[in-house]
Specification:
This protein is of the alpha+beta class. 20% of the residues lie in helices and 40% in strands. It has helices spanning 83-95, 131-136, 152-165; strands at residues 2-5, 13-27, 30-43, 46-50, 75-79, 101-104, 111-116, 123-129, 144-150. The model is unreliable at 58-67 (pLDDT under 50).
């Protein structure tokens, strides 16, 4: 699991991304690979976990009638475009000072991640998780969120863990 920790060691916050299984799909004579993941966000004693209901590819009661045909999960595209590798590279670039702001939202929109630098020594992270898109197949833009400050070292450790856990 890749875990980005806040700079505050007394009242801790975090973002965690955990790799899941992969699904291969043929779309218009193109082979695509998608990888499930789970998200966790925490602040102090509170912790929220967001997981993919169809990762096991079993029918279940709910909004989605056919889990084989609907992307009802937290998914990263891995091929033909590797979103995890692009995310890790962009985060490294931001950490090293190559950008003052950063934004990322996966192709399957279920979270929105933003980083900025209020001052040269501060890194502020904001993440909003749109669970409604995962469970109903409609991006609702209503979301739960978390904001915290982190460090360059924490950000670089996170991208290293992300690369290792997602094999990129």
């Amino acid at each position: 699991m890749a875990k980005l920790r806040s700079e505050d060691s007394e009242y801790k916050s975090f973002l965690e991304i955990r790799a899941g299984g992969s699904v291969n799909v043929d779309v218009a004579n193109t082979s695509e690979q998608w990888q499930f993941y789970s998200l966790s966000i925490g602040h102090g004693g509170r912790h929220l976990l967001f997981t993919s209901p169809s990762e096991e590819k079993q029918a279940y009661q709910g909004f989605i009638k056919n889990v084989e045909n609907v992307a009802d999960g937290y998914l990263f595209c891995r091929t033909p475009k590797d979103e995890v590798l692009q995310l890790a590279q962009a985060l490294d670039n931001f950490a090293e000072g190559g950008a003052t702001t950063f934004g990322f939202e996966p192709v399957e929109p279920c979270f929105d991640l933003k980083l900025d630098r209020p001052t040269a020594d501060e890194i502020r992270l904001t993440i909003f998780v749109d669970e409604g898109n995962v469970l109903t197949d409609v991006a609702r833009w209503d979301a739960l969120g978390l904001r915290f400050f982190t460090t360059k070292g924490n950000l670089l450790a996170f991208t290293e863990e992300l690369r290792r856990d997602f094999a990129c």
